Each structure stands twice: as C-alpha cells, then as structure tokens.
C-alpha cells in the first residue's frame, strides 16, 4: 500500500478552545503502517467476536452503556474543555451516547434474514445478513462521543470489529471513550488510532467497510478511495441548511428555534441553520424577532450552564466566520473580538446577501446566517434547493396544507416542521442528499444493514 506524505506533525495536540493555553491531549500520530497493523489485528479478532453470539455482543454493548453512564459527569466535562461544547449540550450528548449503546445492545437479537419457499420441489431458501469484517470509522470533533458511538455500536452489534480514527481536536475524548469500550470487548475488537490525514487514508485503504463524517472535500476523497477498492462506504458531509418561515407561523417561536439553530454550540453542527427564508409578510416581523432572539443568546465560557454559544474550535475557524460576514449588511452581531482568551465570535445574521456570496454557497460552520426574502412557498423551496447541499430543512407554519405541498419538493434528506434544524433521533435514519451525503443512511436499523451484507442460501435434500 502506498501512502501520501503530509505536512502534519508527528504529534497530535488538542487544546481547549476556550483557553488555548491548556493542552488536553498530546499523543504521537500512529502513522500509516501502525494504522494498517491495527486493521490486521482487528481482522484476526473479528471472527471470534462474531462467533461469540448475540448474547455476548448484547451484553458487551450494555456494559459500555452502563460505563458511559457511570462516567457521565467526567465525560461531559471533558467535552466542554476539549471541543468547547456548552455544558448543557455536553451533558445531553453523553446521555444520548448512553441511549445509543443501549439501543444497539438489542440489535444482535433482531432477525438477520428470512425463510422462503422453494420455487419447485423440496428445499429451503434463506437470506441472512453477515458482518463485513473490519469497520473503519473516521469521525469529526464536534460530537466526540455520540458520532463515534452511533457508528461503532451498530458495527459491533452486527459482529464487525472496529478501528476508529477521530479528529485530532477530539483526541482526549476519543481516548477516554476507547478506554471504556475496550474494557467490555475482547482484545483488538475496538481500536483507536490518533493522527491526521495519513492515518485516515490508511484506514480507508484497509478496512472492509468505511463510515466517514466530516467536510465535503475530504468526504469526496474517502468515497473515491473506498469505491475504487469496492468496499461499502457512507459519507456524511456538509450542510447549508435553510429555515423556511411562512406568514402564518408563530413568529416569536420560530425566531427562538432559528436563533438556537444558528448560535447553539457556535453553529458548529452540520445541521445548523445557515439560511433563513422569510415568505411574504413574514419578513418584517421575523427580521425584528430574530435579531432580538440572537442578541439574547448567552455567549461565553462553555463551562457555564447558562452558555449557549461558546468558542469556535480554532483560530482558523474564527477567522473563517469573521470573513463570512465581512462587507455585508449585518442585521445583528458581526462585532469585534472581545478580551476573552478563547476563539469566540458573535452570533450574526446578514441581509441583502448577493446570491453568489460564499455565505450562500459554502458551509461556514459557525454562528452566522443570511436572512432572505421569498415571494411565496414555491420561491422558498427554490431558494432552499439552489445550493449543492441537501441535509436538513426546517419549516415553520401554523398549518399543514402548505407544508404538505412543499415537503415533497425539498431535496433535503431530513425535514423538521416547527422545530429547529438541529437535533436528530438516533433510532431513525440520518443523512443528506446531493453533496451532503453519500451511500446508506446512518442510525436506526439502517445502520445495522449498512454494516452487513446479504447472503442467499439454497438448501436442497
């Protein structure tokens, strides 16, 4: 196997984005050869893990859930410090992580196929699903416990071994999660490798099934590499999500939902709202209500329970956000940097944004959005669909007639009515259309199907 050299340092360093002087983790990058070696060890361990049976796999995943729950306070605090997640959201993520492991602990007992009658004569026809082997997981930093879990838990439940390559910014969280998971599993069934692009490339080049969450550019490379090898691959990538507000909506409630989806966790979610589309007479009242709601969002130390919008993950991330509103007419926000040591940016909404502006074409991944007018629902749908992304759209209205007309016309993978664009249900399929996603959906039963392949058996006397 050939590897591509990178300019990344041989050491992975993770810092507290609220106080960059604090180093949370400093670990040597695994390197491409060590990554492939981890996959080879996982290959050797996987058959025994699968043959151990449903009860053993279910018990192991239940044990992980219990251990995560027992360490909930510690894990939430670690997410606050390493990735700047506001404490309330960090607690919710850990609780969700517990629920994910418990949910998939029941998956080994689910039917894995069906029995069919023979077309003619005596015999038996069966379909069964079997694990691929080693699942290579490449995960981002913004949900350092939930995303690795909603990938690893179904893969393990189906009988695969797992090798995880987390984002460098979430190294400490990944190391702690690995300690918890490995205590419940046989050796080498779950392994984490620290590193950068070289390690990710090596993992995608060696695993039997690949799941990726991250940027659109990197995701395209992952898909190309895995597809060229003929292995199943799913990639969840960027979003440029719209919130459509109809004139009959509860404007104050819609503004509160949208403000939370713009500024929550400093907009560092693929499901964050980036475009607010006001239909007809909704524009003027929404403009005022949204500005007021955003100004009321608490910005500050993520360790403070009242904080909703904490720091950006890095200095380059903050610069990217500040450049996004530069030169635009700002409705609210867009203020200069404060005296805090972390990488903070104020929640911002801009108006009169040119259609070719990067804010309406590229994912910023920060607390900034554009307010756009639409003449009617058809126009709003057209604006929503005009970008290359298609992850999630939120629609705010008092009635269902217009929504039912518009829902089928939206080319996004998820649609949320009278709710923020952020927030997903881990027991339902998650994923986007167009440049937002590739391959099978994540979460729910769809995830278990992705980590398995179908076999057809013909039994004759």
Give an overview of the whole structure.
The chain has 2 domains: 12-237 and 437-459, Aldehyde Dehydrogenase, Chain A, domain 1, CATH 3.40.605; 241-417, 3-Layer(aba) Sandwich (Aldehyde Dehydrogenase, Chain A, domain 2). It has 14 helices and 20 strands. The chain has helices spanning 32-51, 54-70, 72-83, 87-105, 146-157, 171-184, 197-204, 216-229, 251-263, 283-295, 315-325, 377-385, 401-407, 444-450, and strands at residues 11-16, 19-28, 113-116, 124-131, 134-139, 161-166, 190-192, 209-213, 233-236, 241-245, 273-279, 329-332, 348-351, 368-374, 389-390, 392-396, 414-417, 433-434, 437-438, 452-459. The N and C termini lie far apart (46 Å).
Q: What number of domains?
A: 2
The low-confidence parts are 1-6
Total beta-strand segments = 20
Oligomer: single chain
Largest sheet: 7 strands, mixed
- What structural class results from the helix and strand content? alpha/beta
The CATH homologous superfamily of the largest domain corresponds to Aldehyde Dehydrogenase, Chain A, domain 1
CATH third-level topology of the largest domain: Aldehyde Dehydrogenase, Chain A, domain 1
Can I get a quick summary?
With 461 residues, the protein is an alpha/beta fold.
Layout: helices, strands, pairs:
Elements: E1 11-16, E2 19-28, H1 32-51, H2 54-70, H3 72-83, H4 87-105, E3 113-116, E4 124-131, E5 134-139, H5 146-157, E6 161-166, H6 171-184, E7 190-192, H7 197-204, E8 209-213, H8 216-229, E9 233-236, E10 241-245, H9 251-263, E11 273-279, H10 283-295, H11 315-325, E12 329-332, E13 348-351, E14 368-374, H12 377-385, E15 389-390, E16 392-396, H13 401-407, E17 414-417, E18 433-434, E19 437-438, H14 444-450, E20 452-459
Parallel strand pairs: 5-6, 5-8, 6-7, 8-9, 10-11, 10-16, 11-14, 13-14, 16-17
Antiparallel strand pairs: 1-2, 3-4, 4-20, 9-19, 12-13, 15-18
């Amino acid at each position: 196997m050939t590897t591509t050299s990178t300019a990344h340092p041989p050491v992975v360093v993770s810092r507290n984005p609220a106080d960059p002087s604090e180093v949370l983790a400093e670990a040597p990058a695994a390197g491409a050869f060590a990554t492939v070696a981890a996959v080879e060890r996982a290959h050797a361990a996987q058959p025994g893990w699968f043959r151990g049976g449903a009860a053993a796999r279910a018990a192991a995943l239940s044990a992980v859930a219990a251990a995560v729950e027992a360490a909930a306070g510690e894990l939430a605090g670690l997410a606050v410090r390493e990735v700047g997640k506001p404490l309330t959201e960090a607690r919710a993520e850990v609780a969700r992580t517990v629920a994910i492991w418990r949910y998939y602990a029941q998956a080994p007992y689910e039917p894995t196929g069906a029995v069919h009658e023979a077309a003619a004569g005596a015999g038996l026809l069966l379909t069964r699903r079997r694990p691929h082997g080693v699942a290579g997981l490449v995960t981002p930093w913004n949900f350092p416990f939930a995303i690795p879990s909603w990938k690893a838990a179904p893969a393990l439940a189906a009988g695969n071994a797992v090798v995880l390559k987390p984002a460098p910014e979430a190294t400490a969280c990944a190391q702690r999660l690995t300690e918890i998971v490995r205590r419940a599993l046989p050796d080498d069934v779950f392994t984490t490798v620290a590193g950068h692009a070289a390690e990710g490339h090596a993992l995608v080049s060696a695993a039997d099934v690949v799941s990726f969450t991250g940027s659109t550019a990197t995701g395209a490379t992952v898909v190309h590499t895995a597809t060229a090898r003929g292995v199943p691959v799913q990639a969840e990538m960027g979003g440029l999500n719209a919130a459509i507000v109809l004139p009959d909506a509860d404007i104050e409630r819609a503004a509160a939902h949208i403000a939370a989806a713009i500024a929550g966790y400093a907009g560092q979610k693929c499901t964050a709202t980036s475009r607010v589309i006001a239909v007809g007479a909704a524009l003027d009242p929404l403009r005022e209500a949204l500005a007021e709601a955003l100004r009321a969002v608490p910005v500050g130390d993520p360790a403070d329970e009242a904080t909703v919008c904490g720091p950006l993950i890095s200095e380059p991330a903050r610069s990217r956000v500040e450049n996004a509103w530069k030169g635009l007419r700002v409705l609210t926000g867009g203020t200069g940097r404060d005296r805090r040591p972390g990488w903070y940016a104020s929640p911002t909404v801009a108006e009169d944004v040119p259609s070719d502006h990067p804010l309406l074409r590229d994912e910023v991944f920060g607390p900034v959005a554009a307010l756009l007018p639409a003449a009617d629902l058809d126009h709003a749908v057209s604006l929503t669909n005009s970008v290359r992304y298609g992850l999630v759209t939120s629609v705010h209205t008092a009635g269902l007639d217009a929504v039912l007309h518009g829902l089928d016309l939206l080319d996004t993978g998820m649609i949320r009515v009278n709710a923020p664009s952020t927030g997903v249900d881990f027991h339902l399929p998650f994923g986007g259309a167009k440049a937002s996603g590739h391959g099978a959906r994540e979460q729910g039963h769809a995830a278990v199907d992705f980590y398995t392949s179908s076999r057809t058996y013909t039994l004759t006397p």
